[in-house]
Amino acid sequence: MHTRYQQIAMLDDETGELVERRLEHESGEARAFYAALAGPVRVGIEATGHTRWFERMLRELGHELWIGDAAQIRAAMVRKQKTDARDAAHILDLLMSGRFPRIWRPTMAERDLRQLVWHRQKLVWMRVAVSNQLHALAMGEGVCRKKKLFTKKGRAELESLALDPWASRRRQELLQMLDQFDAALEELDRSVAEQAELSPAAVLLMTHPGVGPVTSLAFALTIGPVERFERSKQVASYLGLNPREHSSGGKQRLGAISKQGNPMMRSLLVEAGHSAARSDGELRQEYQRLKLRRGSGVAKVAIARKLAVRMYWMLRSQASYAQLVRMQGSPWATLVKQ
């Protein structure tokens, strides 16, 4: 599946006829092809972006779409030669042999809510980039105020700095951008809070200290049905918070986290974990211990993973934070207050 065309391999179960061809998207050739197929068919593709229109089209035509894990599909390919035709034939073989690695997909409404959370987070990152540029301008003039630079007094000091013409223009436009981001984020935060209140899972997760509407809603949308995961380790791996490993010959070698999951969710969990450690004694103690041994960076990631595990078991057991004392990797180890 490419942005402009797709290569297909199709098998007719009744006649045994095999069809291989390329379908263009913009010309309407792809839609005409699927519309001409008699009866519902099953279509399998690799997980990729820019398929929303294709999913909607197949649903309108009454066809079934399966989306497969691209890494597992590639791992099942023995030969090193890669072409579109080979890939299409390989996917067809996986479908016919019952080995197609189908993945869970959220509903269209859930994906639209994901856009809300993603848009907010993207604007936050852009605001941070603008803030860093303003910090750099101020420090170039010997003014280092850190977070206080954006208080009322700090901003007045920033605007009063005597800068050269182009630096002054840069400061002015960066401040305008910062004001626009603040206004947009204020509106988005209200929308996220409203949507979080409508989600039972998000409401439950918000009982944990440090977990607000953004983190709770994003976690619920990212994880989906919690029954998909049998163990908390699978959740950590899904979010990319598990360590890389290259062990052999009886020697265990662990590296940094895999970062294979959603980068936005990891960022939100790190922020929420830092906030939760201020209120939760167990997390605070764990953070201080790891900070002394391994540094603050490792400590923050470890607390983020621990928080993700807690949130997972909160959803599995439907237990609020008030009931939660300690969560480990299995439901039988869960302790609740009496």
How would you describe the overall organization of this protein?
- With 338 residues, the chain is mainly alpha-helical.
- Helices cover 56% and strands 11% of the residues.
- It has 13 helices and eight strands.
- The protein has helices spanning 29-35, 52-61, 70-75, 84-97, 108-140, 152-159, 165-197, 200-205, 213-223, 232-238, 263-279, 281-294, 296-317, and strands at residues 5-11, 18-24, 42-46, 64-68, 243-245, 254-257, 324-326, 335-336.
- α11 crosses α13 (296-317).
**Mean of the pLDDT scores?**
91
Low-confidence stretches: 327-338
Distance between the termini: 55 Å
Helix content: 55-70%
Based on helices, strands and strand pairing, what is the structural class?
mainly alpha
The main sheet comes to:
2 strands, antiparallel
Rg for CA atoms: 25 Å
Oligomerization: single chain
Number of helices: 13
Give descriptors for this structure.
338 residues; mainly alpha; 56% helix
Q: What topology does this entry show?
A:
Blueprint: E1 5-11, E2 18-24, H1 29-35, E3 42-46, H2 52-61, E4 64-68, H3 70-75, H4 84-97, H5 108-140, H6 152-159, H7 165-197, H8 200-205, H9 213-223, H10 232-238, E5 243-245, E6 254-257, H11 263-279, H12 281-294, H13 296-317, E7 324-326, E8 335-336
Parallel strand pairs: 3-4
Antiparallel strand pairs: 1-2, 5-6, 7-8
Helix pairs in contact: 5-7, 5-9, 7-9, 9-11, 10-13, 11-12, 11-13, 12-13
